[in-house]
Amino acid sequence: MNKLLVLLSVCLGFCVSANAMAKAETEKPNIVLIFADDAGFGDFGFQGSTQLETPNLDKLAQSGVRFTQGYVSDSTCGPSRAGLMTGKYQQRFGYEEINVPGFMSDNSALKGADMGLPLDQKTMADYLKEQGYKTAVFGKWHLGDADRFHPLNRGFDTFLGFRGGDRSYFNYSEQEMKNGNKHFFDKKLERDFGNYEEPKEYLTDELGKEAAKYIEQNKDEPFFIYLAFNAVHTPLESDPKDLAKFPHLTGKRKELAAMTLGLDRASGYVLDKLKELGLDDNTIVVFSNDNGGPSDKNASNNAPLAGTKSNQLEGGIRVPFLISWPKHIKAGSIYEYPVSTLDLLPTFYSAAQGKALESDIDGVDLLPYIQGKNTERPHKVMYWKKENRAVIRDNDWKLIRYPDRPAELYDLSTDIGEQTNLAAKNPERVKNMFKSLFEWELTLERPRWLLKRQYEKYDIDRMDKYRLPATQPE
Prior knowledge:
alpha/beta
């Protein structure tokens, strides 16, 4: 009888253990997407910076995979975020130009609050909500100011942030809000829908702490957090205690270093909370940035790349890119093939055990590639387009089409700084890539809104100013 009881006990213990293991294997991961704003490619410790301090993000890089060729789908923040949220080239639904009220052409089809992510486009949050996730966004939205484009109408359950593209990191006074222009409402800090308040502390810190609080409140069910910092976008406003830590720097570069330290600290609030609650092992954490750094505006450094925000040199479209998921991704990994923020939606959906992703998604699930199950390139051909300017990347060949000069061709496998134009030596390749680029353009919608023409010149002039990697701030 005693032997029977012992045997029964062992069997029950084995069954419970097996069930626990099966549950652990099928448990959906939490997902945290940390998105910076206007950061430079080289302005993080894990990217090689010796001036700027990012200990928390450096630790994140060590815990997962760092992509050496991570791209966004546009070199400006609105279109880049539209691609991120839908997993599609945003030009396919007419979101080709940045949407900034007051900057648009008089002939623009849509203006002001009406410029937003079309309602027929399904978002990352929509997909994850269908998989049983709680969804939250903290920070910058910039996908439409009108109520119909509000995050709570686009798949998110919780929102603390602002609808527009930028705002102060400190409180706006009542007088400032009262005297602000007609577009000022998109700068107001909003909790959920229509509940306006001003930050109680430095905004970057507040966003990080609110995200950490959300994790605490939802630790028992799968959650998706989109933590969209406005750091390090202008205005250049840092916490004085951070500014004091960089006595060796001056001017804009000093402000940027302080703001980047604040960004890293706020990211640390989230990472520390995940570890404290024992959630870090089965949480996917992604860190990236919406476009290249605007070096003339915030002294960001995109070296060893040429170019900046708003142009299609590598410095405008290649960004820092990390993914950590300790349960499934080897720590300290480096991935060399090109990937895109378009890939995050299908990657998250796959990890969330989704089964029926819509077939028109341009991104791909990165997990088989990261884990070595698929050794091919995730993308053999990639595209970028803004008005007359456009790029096609075919494997490592990159063709850039300009409005004011002949096209240029670069071999990125040997020339990531884009200094040796090979177009004259490869006329047939240039011709074929031109045709392939045009074939892709024929699949796109016309832009829903248009910037004033003067900003096209501004973008070209900015590109020329930073045409050499050596011209990046140090």
